[in-house]
Design a protein that fits this description.
It is a single chain. By secondary structure, the protein is α+β, with helices and mostly antiparallel strands. It is built from three helices and four strands. It has a four-stranded antiparallel sheet. Strand 2 and strand 3 form a beta hairpin. The longest helix is centred in the N-terminal third of the chain and has 24 residues.
């Protein structure tokens, strides 16, 4: 009887642990806040070469990563703030889960020799 109770407790603990781990790693939809915006500032640089058209590279990187979020660019679109630094404004605001996906895409080498680095994200019109 003790053996059965021990096995049953082990099975319950294993199932509970798997469920707990699944909850921690699962991607969930974000709450949509109408009228909100996110201002994303990121740097783009090309490794080992001169970059004659940084805005084109930033547009390419944004285009490659846009699929990670459903939010679209708002006016004025993608703007170069200074050499290699860009502002992207999305409507509505990018939620926590979508933000992790987008940031990961922008900072990985999604496009050969192109490196992105997220500087900041600011949400406007969110509680």
């Amino acid at each position: 009887m003790k053996r059965f109770a021990l096995v049953a407790a082990l099975v319950v603990a294993t199932i509970g642990g798997v469920d707990w781990l699944a909850d921690l790693t699962q991607d969930r939809p974000d709450r949509v806040l109408r009228g909100s915006r996110s201002e994303l500032v990121f740097d783009v640089r090309v490794r080992h070469s001169f970059d004659p058209a940084p805005l084109d590279r930033a547009r390419g990187l944004w285009g490659a990563c846009q699929h990670t979020v459903w939010q679209k660019l708002a006016e004025p679109g993608l703007v170069e703030l200074e050499a290699g630094r860009f502002l992207a404004v999305t409507e509505p605001a990018v939620g926590e889960h979508a933000w992790r996906r987008l940031q990961g895409c922008l900072e990985d080498f999604t496009i050969d020799r192109l490196q992105g680095h997220v500087v900041s994200k600011k949400d406007i019109g969110t509680p």
